[in-house]
Amino acid sequence: MSSETASATPIAWADAQRVAFEAGRAARPDAERVALGEADGRTLAEPLVTLTDLPPFPTSSIDGYAVRGAPPWRVLGRVLAGSVAPPLPDEDGVAMEVATGAMVPGGTRAILRTEESATTADGRIEGTPRAEPEWRVPGDEAARGEELLPAGTAVDPGVIGLAAHCGYDSLPVLRRPRAAVLVFGDELLTGGLPGNGLVRDALGPALPSWLRRLGATVDTGAVLGPVKDTLEAHVDAIRAALDSADLICTTGGTMRGPVDHLHPALRELGGDYLINTVAVRPGFPMLVARVPGPDGRDRFLAGLPGNPQSAIVALMSLVAPLLAGLAGREAPRLPRVTLGAPVRGRGTDTHLALVHVDRENVARPMAHVGSSMLRGLAGASGFAVIPPGTSGEPGSQVDLVPLPLLNGERR
Q1: Per DSSP, which regions of 241-343 are E strands?
Q2: Residue 279: is it exposed, middle or buried by C-beta count within 10 angstroms (0-12/13-18/19+)?
């Protein structure tokens, strides 16, 4: 629906998350091939299949002797890892010393462990090999062409190691979504102490880090503001960001006051609302719109409230699932926590309550959680989800929207 005719009836919070994710999923960026060392944090664009049998050749699991026939065995040489093993002669009573990971010579019937062997007076080897095989056969881990991981898998160090193990030098991955940040508000300072009617911009410095932890790329120069409180300045700033960004996050201007120019700017740029206000507190009002880019490809604009904590609620409610969809990931699954103290409901709205989660998975509400405050956010683990028409009682289980903290740790 166009920005001019869009209804401002709030959408349910859970429905808003679903709409944002599905919109991102439908607009996933193109794939690109990157070196293994650059693939961490990306998403596989194609299934990971083995390029060869794993292992590709018979491989000794131990240090020992590859033997043929009955003991004692005459040792003909040594095979180390990384070398090609010659086959054992077609005769009994012969052996080849092999190292762990080395290629097993053809004709081997068993491998005798070094620590379970003995040397005879004439220099031969004797002992009793164990009944179970002491080497890995080709395809023991995976056969050539076997799918190991599906497309859409998040690439982490384990996936990178597996890809190298299979013989890959690079991987086909989805391009990271590119994000830009536009800060609206003539009342904002970008440096120094607040005062005389001016406050510090706390979102412009912080949002790029939040966006990067949610999987987006935010280039140097992709943060602009404060943008002058005029319609022309808003339109120009958004149009400039459309040149390179897949997602534009704006702060402030989501109301319809005398200096709130976001809605008129969307109308002028031909934007279509996907979400226009959400029934959640804090965080009112927030929005996501589709805006055509200069190349005809649609971009997304997420309008975040100007109050800092409300902006982070909007970020985690709408931008996190949108970026998950753009990255080709599955929809975020919310963990469950146990409330350690009461959390009030917010009537017909969902309440996202800032909490700290301890090592016992008990969530306790934070103090200093007004919409304009950041003190509580700085020490929180995430937002406890209190559904409409309910209150959070101590001991009850609720969903948690976790903040993307460093290394996934809960403070």
Answers
A1: 247-251, 272-276, 278-281, 287-292, 298-304, 336-339
A2: buried
Superfamily in which the 59-136 domain is placed by CATH: Molybdopterin biosynthesis moea protein, domain 3. (2.170.190.11)
Q: What's the pTM value of the predicted model, to 2 decimals?
A: 0.83
Strand partners of residue 386: 351
Residue segments in the chain with a per-residue pLDDT below the cut of 50: 1-7, 408, 410-411
* Distance from C-alpha of 235 to C-alpha of 247, rounded to nearest angstrom: 15
Q: What is the pLDDT of residues 97-138, one digit of tens each?
A: 999 999 999 999 999 999 999 999 999 999 999 999 999 999
Helix (H, G, I), strand (E, B) or coil at 305: coil
Q: Are 98 and 79 in contact (CB under 8 A)?
A: yes
Q: Residue 406: what pLDDT?
A: 62
- At the topology level, CATH places domain 336-408 in Beta-clip (2.40.340)
Residue with tokens 């200093």: 368
| Residues 319/177, Cβ–Cβ less than 8 Å | no
Q: Give the SS3 label for residue 49.
A: strand
Angle (nearest 5°) at CA 350 between 349 and 355: 140
CA distance linking residue 192 with residue 194, whole number of Å: 7
Q: Which run of H or E residues covers position 227?
A: strand 223-227
Residue in the block written with tokens 């070196």: 35
Structure tokens at 155: 């690439």
> What does the chain come to in residues?
411
Domain ranges of the chain: 11-29+176-326, 34-53+140-174, 59-136, 336-408
To 5 degrees, how large is the angle CA 206–CA 193–CA 282? 45
Q: In angstroms, what CA-CA distances link 17 with 12, 228, 248, 288?
A: 9, 31, 17, 11
C-alpha to C-alpha distance for 402 and 107, rounded to whole angstroms = 58
Q: Are 156 and 223 in contact (CB under 8 A)?
A: no
With a CB cutoff of 8 Å and minimum separation 6, the contacts of 160 are 36, 37, 39, 40, 171
Chain-centre distance for alpha carbon 146: 25
Q: What kind and span of H or E run contains 226?
A: strand 223-227
Query: Fold for domain 34-53+140-174?
Result: Molybdopterin biosynthesis moea protein, domain 2 (3.90.105)
**Distances, alpha carbon 367 to alpha carbons 45, 80, 385, in Å:** 43, 64, 17
Written out in words, the top-level CATH class of the domain with range 11-29+176-326 is: alpha beta
238: enclosing H helix or E strand: helix 231-241
